């Protein structure tokens, strides 16, 4: 009985830790995606991290970019992966994966990273045909806070922010807790 009570308590604590504010009104979820690793058969295999899309204005219109953490596009040795898949909604309906080759050279469609190794940021321009075939609603680059904006509005570490991501590790932890108390298989 004590084991069952402890298991229920552990799961409830885990559930309350998963609680989050709802996505803000007016936020178009097509501004975000999920990056997946590609297996040896060339198929998307497991989620590796979130990404979001930003449009950068140029003299010829705008160029959409995929933005993510640099480590999401790296292998365990810190080398940029040859390619990743991003799960996107098709403009005509449904969902599919788009393969992003990452190790191309002499092309604008390659990975750009910050020169300081400690900055965990990667940007990849997106080809126009991908943008037109999929439901991507990029965030205008001028909405991203600059150093001047952060100083003016006193934005700093510890301030509240809106965070998007795939927290599969939390769900797996809850599953392990449930199973460790011998309460059967927990369906996720």
Question: What does this molecule look like?
Answer:
This protein is of the alpha+beta class and 188 residues long. It has a domain of 116 residues: Thrombin, subunit H (Beta Barrel). The protein is 22% helix and 28% strand. Helix 1 packs antiparallel against helix 4. The longest helix has 17 residues. The N terminus and C terminus are likely disordered.
Provide a compact summary of the structure.
Helix content is 22%, strand content 28%. By secondary structure, it is an alpha+beta fold.
Question: What topology emerges from the helices and strands here?
Answer:
Blueprint: H1 2-18, E1 32-38, E2 44-58, E3 61-68, E4 83-89, E5 95-101, E6 112-113, E7 122-125, H2 128-133, E8 139-140, H3 147-152, H4 168-180
Helix pairs in contact: 1-4
Number of extended strands: 8
**Helix-strand sequence:** HEEEEEEEHEHH
CATH architectural name of one domain: Beta Barrel
* Biggest β-sheet description: 8 strands, mixed
State which percent range the strand residues make up.
Answer: 25-35%
Q: Note the total helix count.
A: 4
Poorly predicted runs of 5 or more residues: 1-19, 180-188
Approximately how much helix is present in the residues? 10-25%
Distance between the termini: 24 Å
Find the structural class using helix and strand composition. alpha+beta
The average pLDDT is 77
Shape: globular
What is the CATH class name of one domain? Answer: Mainly Beta
In angstroms, what is the radius of gyration? 20 Å
Provide the CATH topology of one domain.
Thrombin, subunit H
């Amino acid at each position: 009985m004590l084991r069952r009570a402890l298991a229920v308590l552990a799961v409830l604590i885990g559930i309350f830790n998963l609680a989050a504010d709802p996505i803000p009104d007016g936020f178009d979820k097509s501004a975000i995606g999920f990056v997946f690793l590609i297996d040896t058969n060339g198929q998307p295999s497991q989620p590796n991290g979130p990404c979001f899309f930003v449009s950068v204005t140029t003299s010829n219109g705008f160029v959409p970019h995929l933005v993510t953490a640099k480590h999401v596009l790296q292998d365990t040795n810190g080398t940029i992966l040859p390619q990743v898949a991003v799960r996107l909604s098709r403009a005509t309906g449904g969902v599919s994966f788009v393969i992003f080759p990452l190790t191309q050279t002499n092309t604008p469609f390659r990975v750009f990273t910050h020169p300081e190794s400690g900055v965990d940021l990667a940007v990849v321009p997106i080809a126009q045909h991908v943008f037109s075939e999929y439901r991507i609603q990029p965030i205008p680059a001028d909405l991203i806070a600059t150093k001047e904006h952060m100083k003016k509005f006193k934005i700093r570490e510890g301030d509240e922010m809106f965070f998007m991501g795939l927290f599969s590790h939390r769900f797996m932890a809850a599953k392990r807790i449930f199973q460790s108390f011998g309460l059967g298989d927990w369906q996720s």
